[in-house]
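Technical annex, item 7. During the second reporting period the consortium partners agreed on a shared format for inverse folding records so that results from different sites could be compared directly. Each record opens with the tokenized structure and is followed by the designed sequence. A conforming record, contributed by the partner at site C, is shown below for reference.
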């Protein structure tokens, strides 16, 4: 039984149209199609009600870092 490699998808989001989610989703789809398990931060919850921008950014970075440490590889988007 072979273990599926889990990859973390990383790339720019802040300040880009739609937070660059279309690029993240396309890359995640392509990687899953060839057999990788993908951690895509664009799929994380976006419920930041009551948080200012800095608090929301910090909350998402904390979740991203926790997810990253469980991956075997990282894929960097341009």
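Designed sequence (site C submission):
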């Amino acid at each position: 039984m072979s273990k599926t490699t889990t990859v973390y998808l990383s790339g720019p989001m802040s300040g880009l149209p739609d937070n660059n989610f279309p690029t993240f989703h396309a890359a995640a789809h392509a990687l899953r199609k060839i057999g990788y398990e993908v951690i895509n931060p664009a799929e994380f919850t976006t419920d930041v009600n009551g948080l200012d921008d800095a608090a929301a950014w910090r909350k998402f970075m904390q979740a991203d870092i926790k997810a990253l440490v469980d991956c075997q590889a990282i894929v960097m988007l341009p």
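The mean pLDDT is 86. The two ends are 34 Å apart (CA to CA). All partners now use this format for quarterly exchanges.
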